[in-house]
Amino acid sequence: MSDEQERTQTTAEAAEATNATRNGARPGAIWPEATAVNADGELTFHGRTAAGLLDEFGSPLYLIDTDEVRDRARHFVRAAAQAFSNSTTHVSFAGKAFLSKEIVRIVTESGMYVDTCTMGEMRIALAAGVPGRRLVLHGNNKSDAEIALAVEQGFAKIVVDEPDEPARIAAIAHRLGKRARVMLRVTAGIHAGGHEYISTAHEDQKFGVPLVPAGTDAAVFGVLDHLDDVTPAASNARMAERRADAANATDTADAEKTRPGDHLGEGRELRYDVRYPYDLSHEEVGPTDRALAEAMTAVADGPALAVLKDIAARHEDLELVGIHSHIGSNIHDADAFIQAAKRMMLLRKTFYATDAITVPEVDLGGGYSVAYVPGEDSMDIDAELGRLAAAVHDVNRALGMPDPAVSFEPGRWIVAPAGVTLYRVGTVKPVHLADGTTRTYVSVDGGMSDNIRPALYGADYTALLANRRGSERTMLSRVCGMHCESGDIVVRNVQLPDDIRRGDVLAVPVTGAYGRTMASNYNQALIPAVVGVSEAGAHVMIRRQTIDDLLALDVSD
Ligand SMILES: Cc1ncc(COP(=O)(O)O)c(C=O)c1O
């Protein structure tokens, strides 16, 4: 949008501009579909005016359009099933994005599971009446109590995050007389979403277990982009421990052909099984086959495979459900997911090659982007999951593996565009800048305590005057909060009508994810209520905190 356009934009025009791309889960949507501007220039949600909602429920206020959440949840579940039409798909809603009992019911009724990662999230999901078999437990530092609750309730997956965890989960499951379903979170060396890919295969971060040993050259994975030349001889390769093989080498010498130079890593060698399923003794093994063998060897030597073996060895107490990868947040297309998925398929292939175990499910995590400001991209789920599905299928075909069940964990994509925060305007202060321009600081009655993302990540938002049409003329504005931090910014730069004044209502869209769940009591601010709006009306979903809530925690005399 040009400066000229920005200056002459009125509230209604701005809303219409965003409405033009707004339609349920369509890319680029920044307002819930049922947002409109009435004849008086007021912003409405399912026909309820912004000012009316603040009058009834107080300010500031988180709005969540529950119809929109339901539409988006169904959309994602359907898109995954259609893209992976020959596989089972599971979609879990990442509860860290936003959690309430009602949202848990809406997403599970829409076919989703729910991801939790703390006792609080687990208890809210269970309190919603959702059975454990629809829930997932994540966490890099799970307590025994969290693991025990997940095992008792029969959670669909407990995601193992470190090498010692299988033993802990197995012991707890054993004590409870249950078998726990576990998945292993793997760091595949792909990081996406606001950062460049990190090409080192060993990531310096707290989550998951590395796919390959530290210091492995990520170039070893290059073969995954050129699998067309892999011959059946390589895709049927089995990896054997050398010492074990030495004992029966003579018995099997005529059945399996071990080629010179195929000795890979300490204590291991790759064998081309010439009997199963075809006699390939006449075939030559090519350079791509060797490159694949090298990649499989790096994976076979990596920490993740060792943990998978440990889980498999504890099969009486643990059921290995799958492997998991989460690569980042707010990712616009499938490219990085495809790279991560290929590495996960390589791990699955390698585990089959070493232990003849086929991991049933691969979870590709969350991180699907939404647009926060007009003109920004959001991930086109239908198109991008289609590309991902094709890549997953191709890599498995080349590796001679059946496609796994595939699962996803979107959070932001489901709830962010369904949320709008409403604030009352307080101080309006023009600040003259060194370059001769003026920026007007428009203070609102919330800020970093209800939306930490601008302060934490420099996240961009936009805002509209929501209670009246406002002047035709606009001014460069910065919407800031009421907290004792100069970084307490809600919207860094936005054109607002130049007659904005105390008592007006501002609406900030796309606040449905990581707003309420990251809210704090900084400066003893009270966390706002969450109001659900839908065709059926408006109702309090999570009540506003009160001063009594704060004082109830302060128990000293
Ligand atoms: C393991 C895992 N899954 C899913 C998500 C959800 O990500 P998003 O809300 O960006 O889709 C996260 C976010 O941090 C995560 O850590």
TrEMBL record:
Q: Which UniProt keywords apply?
A: Amino-acid biosynthesis, Decarboxylase, Lyase, Lysine biosynthesis, Pyridoxal phosphate
What does the record give as cofactor?
A: pyridoxal 5'-phosphate
Q: Binding positions for pyridoxal 5'-phosphate? A: G367, E409, P410, G411, R412, Y514
One Pfam family hit: Orn_Arg_deC_N
Region ranges (Disordered) = 1-29, 235-266
EC number(s) reported in the record: 4.1.1.20
Please name the PROSITE patterns in this protein's record: ODR_DC_2_2
Which positions does UniProt annotate for substrate binding? R412, R453, Y457, E485, Y514
Q: Mark out the compositionally biased spans (Basic and acidic residues).
A: 254-266
> Boundaries of each Orn/DAP/Arg decarboxylase 2 N-terminal domain copy?
77-211, 312-416
Associated pathway: Amino-acid biosynthesis; L-lysine biosynthesis via DAP pathway; L-lysine from DL-2,6-diaminopimelate: step 1/1
At the top level, the lineage of the source is Bacteria
Residue numbers of N6-(pyridoxal phosphate)lysine PTMs? K96
List the SUPFAM superfamilies hit by this protein, alphabetically: Alanine racemase C-terminal domain-like, PLP-binding barrel
**Is the keyword Lyase assigned to this protein?**
yes
Name one molecular function that GO assigns to this entry: pyridoxal phosphate binding
How does this protein assemble?
Homodimer.
Q: What does this protein do?
A: Specifically catalyzes the decarboxylation of meso-diaminopimelate (meso-DAP) to L-lysine.
Question: What family is reported?
Answer: Belongs to the Orn/Lys/Arg decarboxylase class-II family. LysA subfamily.
Output this protein's name.
Diaminopimelate decarboxylase
- Source organism per entry reads Bifidobacterium moraviense
